[in-house]
Design a protein that fits this description.
Blueprint lengths: L1 E3 L9 E8 L5 E10 L5 E7 L4 E5 L2 E5 L2 E6 L4 E7 L5 E8 L2 E10 L18 E9 L4 E9 L6 E7 L16 H11 L3 E5 L16 H16 L4 E11 L2 H11 L3 E7 L6 H15 L4 H20 L3 H17 L3 H7 L6 H8 L2 H8 L3 H5 L5 E6 L7 H14 L5 E6 L26 H13 L9
Parallel strand pairs: 1-6, 13-14, 13-15, 15-16, 16-17, 17-18
Antiparallel strand pairs: 2-3, 2-10, 3-4, 4-5, 6-7, 7-8, 8-9, 9-10, 11-12, 12-14
């Protein structure tokens, strides 16, 4: 680590906690841990507590004349502040991707407890095992946790499939661990659960950035093969539970494999990604109080961007088109509007790279309906009434119509009152609420899923 003038560094050694107020009124707690070794080297890390991200390296620490600078290059972030005379407060500013926000760090004695009320506490009343298996066709090693009831097997089992973005086996985000809570609940009801780190995350290998939903479906198929190799698992009762994008992947796997006994779609898409993104953008903007003119302008820009992506398969040419579109848009915006919209020239390359990723190209145009028509196993499709990311009305209707058109004999489609995209009980459904809500998954949603699976399997353990 690079350091300068650190003879006085002991003044700022220790744990420092501050809260950022970001777009939409959401609060994000940042924890910095600064320490020095006997050889004079400095170690510093940053945790984003409410995003569930820990141990981000702080590459450079500079401290002189009560002024501290911390550079977190991996996320294009930095903090600059001044230590107050009491030695307990550092007042300064956090900068990231061209956006500046005030940040006051306070000295604390121990790391805050980030456990949520529903997080299970060891010792668990069931067995837990770390497992590793391979998707041989893709050359990917997948690491996860298998939880097994302590009653007499063989047990029905489910594989949990996470939503978009790199997720660990607990689907950890904004201080919540939904898959940990879901697996705990189901295992206590007599259902074995396999939850897995996504490619390139945790203990799993592979390049997440080059993978599409179809590739992730291959990883799930490998998970099915693994469960079939376990004598504790009933090979005729292996099901899938997919959340968000996972609800798009589960039907793909169910069509490809006769070993899928049932699927649960939690906020699964029923329409194309492009259609979802338009709806999502407008609904979240309205929930955050954005005016109609800005919403219309954002919608027009999105349409131009997605058209360029779909029409131009050459990434270099497409990137130039996107750069011009976005630069033209930023030229007409004030600095305040840029910050509010999350635009910055410094972050433009990363935004364009993300838009042209294989995953995004596939997601924009993939229509789940032809696949859903082919799904013959039992299906439970649920959405929260206040889901602004995968809106319930349009998606549940499309899922139900596709299952009916395909002649599926056992499907249940339900909209759950008051719940958001994470199936938390919410006020508005806005993503800015996710971290502030203590509940991880509504007990109503857990019970519905548990009851539905138990009715279709041999799981006979009484509800807890």
């Amino acid at each position: 680590m690079n350091t300068d003038n650190n003879q006085d560094l002991k003044e700022v050694e220790g744990l420092w906690l501050g809260t950022l107020e970001v777009q939409g009124g959401m609060e994000v707690r940042l924890l910095f841990n600064i320490s020095s070794s006997p050889d004079g080297s400095v170690n510093a890390t940053m945790d984003s507590l409410d995003q569930g991200v820990k141990g981000i390296p702080v590459e450079t620490v500079t401290y002189k004349d009560s002024k501290l600078r911390l550079d977190v290059k991996s996320i294009r972030g930095s903090f600059e502040g001044t230590l107050k005379e009491d030695g307990k407060t550092i007042e300064g500013e956090w900068k990231q991707s061209g956006i500046s926000l005030p940040l006051v760090l306070s000295r604390i004695d121990e790391t805050p407890d980030t456990r949520r009320e529903q997080d299970p506490v060891r010792p668990y009343p069931y067995d837990e095992e770390e497992v590793v298996y391979e998707n041989e066709g893709a050359g990917v090693k997948l690491a996860g946790t298998l939880t097994l009831p302590r009653s007499e097997g063989p047990f029905p089992a489910v594989i949990l499939i996470s939503g978009s973005g790199q997720q660990n086996r607990d689907e950890e985000l904004l201080g919540h661990r939904p898959f940990l809570v879901l697996s705990d609940y189901l295992t206590q009801r007599g259902i074995a659960v396999l939850r897995v780190d996504d490619r390139g995350t945790g203990g799993s290998t592979g390049d997440f950035s080059q993978a599409t939903s179809e590739d992730f479906a291959g990883d799930v198929l490998a998970g099915i093969d693994y469960l079939k190799s376990r004598e504790e698992i009933d090979p005729t009762q292996i099901g899938l539970i997919g959340h968000s994008e996972g609800g798009l992947i589960a039907p793909i796997v169910a069509v490809e494999s006769r070993d899928v006994a049932f699927i649960v779609l939690m906020a699964g898409p029923g329409i194309t990604g492009e259609e979802i993104l338009y709806l999502q953008s407008e609904l979240i903007s309205r929930a955050e109080g954005v005016d109609n003119e800005t919403i219309a302008r954002n919608n027009a820009l999105m349409k131009s961007i997605y058209s360029a992506i779909k029409e131009e398969q050459n990434d270099e040419i497409a990137a130039e088109k996107l750069r011009k579109l976005m630069m033209d848009e930023m030229a007409n915006m004030s600095e305040e509007e840029k910050q509010s919209a999350g635009y910055s020239e410094a972050d433009l390359d990363a935004q364009i790279q993300s838009l042209l990723s294989p995953w995004m190209r596939n997601f924009l145009t993939y229509d789940p309906r032809p696949t859903l028509i082919k799904v013959k196993c039992p299906v439970l499709a649920i959405n929260g009434e206040k889901d602004l990311q995968v809106p319930p009305e349009e998606n549940l209707q499309a899922i139900e119509e596709a299952l009916e058109a395909g002649g599926n004999q056992d499907y249940t489609v339900k909209e759950l009152p008051g719940l958001n995209h994470l199936f938390q009980t919410s006020q508005t459904g806005s993503p800015s609420e996710y971290a502030r809500i203590e509940e991880t998954i509504s007990p109503t949603a857990l019970e519905l899923i548990g009851d539905w699976i138990s009715e279709r399997t041999s799981a006979a353990v009484e509800k807890q």
